[in-house]
Amino acid sequence: MKPSDRRPLVLIFMGVSGSGKTTVGTLLAQRTGATFFEGDNFHPPENIEKMRRGIPLTDADREKWLHTLRDIITRSLDEGTFTVMACSALKAAYRDLLQGGDARVKFVYLTGPRSVIAERLKARRNHFMPATLLDSQWAALEPPSDALTFSCEKSPNEIVSAVIQALGMGA
After folding, report:
1. 158 Cβ contact list (under 8 Å, min separation 6)
2. Region of poorest pLDDT, from 52-56, 77-81, 117-121
3. Confidence grade of residue 160 (pLDDT, cut at 50, 70, 90)
4. Global pTM value
5. Where do the domains of the chain lie, and which CATH numbers do they carry?
6. Fewest Cβ atoms nearer than 10 Å: which of 28, 121, 129, 149?
7. DSSP character string of 138-153
8. Residue 1 has pLDDT above 50, yes or no
């Protein structure tokens, strides 16, 4: 496989809340000049309110949100703009919808020990996702079999460097 065959046009950082999707995705976008989208910013207000109250989202709750993200992905693909997105993408069906059968859309799965992620969530401030919803995210998670996978115990810089190397995006 030539390095150019590995390069996605859209790269989605996925995993449970607190795994580092936004931190690592933002850093990769900065280092590569990609456009970054924080998936949480596109939740409808009713989803945010539900999560604030500690109520897990259902597939039906996530449907509109996922279609909004798919629209962003489609525009990025149409424009040929390298895009990085942070999105939990917990289930295979969600990833299928986001990818839309296009091999130019790839996933990076950030995972790690539940205890580490729980501590991160407890320490996080000014976010609508309470630590009490972590168990519901773990329950919904269907780990991908076809994503680059990294432990969130590595530093964001280490993960970004590894992603760039794995996808043949650096010098």
Report:
1. none
2. 117-121
3. very high
4. 0.89
5. 3-166 (3.40.50.300)
6. 149
7. HHH----SSSEEEETT
8. no
The owner of tokens 């629209």 is 71
More confident residue, 19 or 101: 101
Task: Find tokens 């969130």 and name the residue.
Answer: 152
User: Residues 65-80, buried b or exposed e (16+ Cβ, 10 A)?
Assistant: bbeebbebbeebbeee
Q: Which of 97, 23, 31 is nearest to 40 (CA)?
A: 23
Structural tokens at position 164:
């760039």
| Dihedral sign for Cα atoms in the order 85, 53, 121, 94 | negative
**Three-class secondary structure of residue 85 per DSSP:** strand
3 state SS of 34: coil
DSSP H or E stretch at residue 64: helix 59-79
Supply φ then ψ for residue 29, to 5 degrees: -60, -40
Helix axes 45-52, 59-79, angle to 10 degrees: 130
Q: What is the mean pLDDT of residues 7-27?
A: 91
